[in-house]
Amino acid sequence: MKNLSWNNAILTGASKGLGVHIARALAKEGVNLVLIARSADALEKVRDEMMTYDVKAVVIPADLTETGNFDSLIAEAEKKLGPIDILVNNAGIEISTPYEKFSPDDIQKMITLNLTVPMLLTRAVMPGMLKRNRGHFVNISSLAGKTGFPTQTPYAASKAGLIMFTHSLRIELGDTQIGASVVCPGFVSDDGMYARMEERAGPAPKILKPTTPEKVAKGVVRCIKKNIPELIINPLPMKPLFMLQEAIPGIKTTLHKAFGTPEFAEKITLEKSETEK
Fold first, then answer.
1. Model's pTM, two decimal places?
2. 53, 99, 155, 194: which is the annotated catalytic residue?
3. Annotation says 155 is catalytic
4. Which residue in 57, 59, 135, 258 is a FRET match for 49, CA 20 to 30 A apart?
C-alpha cells in the first residue's frame, strides 16, 4: 500500500499516548480514521485534531474488553466511514509486579486486551479485506515479547503471542494482497508509563534507552507502505542480541542480569499503564 491517501483505518487505543501519535502519522498520510477507546471526551479531542489534516475522522467509544460482538463493532465503523483498509491494534495494558502477586483478574485482563481483542478484531475485519483483496494489519507488540521482562511476565507473554499471531497470519495471507506487520518498540518516552517508571526508578539501563512515540508512529506507516513483517524500534541495535538468545536460549537470564534489567524491574513494580481500550 504505497499510497495511503483515502484509505480507511481503525485505530484502537486512540485517545492518548502512543495512539495519538499513530493517529497523527496516519492522518498526515491522508488516511481516514475510526478512533476507538473508552473515553468519549478524549477521543473527540483527538478527532478534532485529525480533521485539521483534511481527513475524515469518527469516534467509537468502547471498552474492548467488554465488547461482546466485534462483527457489530466493525459494521458500525464501516457505516460511519466505509470499508476498512487498515487495522492498527494498539490498545493494551501493562502491569509491573512479581508474578506471584498478580491477581487472576489482572492476568486475564492483559491477555484479553493485549492478545485476544486484536485477534478477534482482525477476524471481524478480514472478510471485507479478503473480498476486496487488499488491506493491512498492524499489531503493536513490544521488545518484552521478544526477550521477556521480569515483573512483566503476563504482559511479555501476551506480546509474544501477538508477534506469532502476526507471523502466522502473514503466512496464511501469502497469496493475497493483504499484509500484516508487528511493531516491537522498547520503552517509549511519552507522558505515560515510562515517565512514571523514570520518576520511581531513574533512567532505564542504557540498552533499554527509550525511543520516541514519533519514531514508533513513523514505523507503523513504514510497515504499511512496505509490508514489513516485523519492525523493532529501539535506539540501540537489538537484533544481534535476539539472534544470540535464539541460538542459546539459556543465555537470556545472563544477558538481562548483565544489562541491569532485574534491578530496574524491581524498582518499577506495582506500576500500571493502560492504553485506552
1. 0.91
2. 155
3. yes
4. 135
